[in-house]
Design goal:
By secondary structure, this protein is mainly α. It is 61% helix and 0% strand. It has 5 helices and no strands. Helix 4 crosses helix 5.
């Protein structure tokens, strides 16, 4: 049951390197879903998630293009 619960609680944001649990939770609590994050400026993502701009740019690229930069 625990394994199933952990799998269900996962998010597509888990794939973004450098984006920790706290930042993921902040983003999802504020925007409610990935689809609502689309089109949000990088500056706003950085502010809401309390993250540096390079990580906010990775989130933006992932949400809008589905791209994950491993660097």
């Amino acid at each position: 049951r625990r394994t199933r619960k952990k799998r269900v609680l996962g998010s597509a944001l888990d794939k973004i390197p450098g984006l920790g649990v706290d930042r993921r939770v902040r983003l999802l609590r504020h925007f409610k879903s990935l689809s609502k994050m689309r089109g949000i400026p990088v500056e706003d993502l950085a502010k809401v998630g309390r993250m540096p701009r390079p990580i906010a740019e990775k989130v933006y690229a992932f949400v809008n293009n589905g791209e994950v930069d491993a660097s």
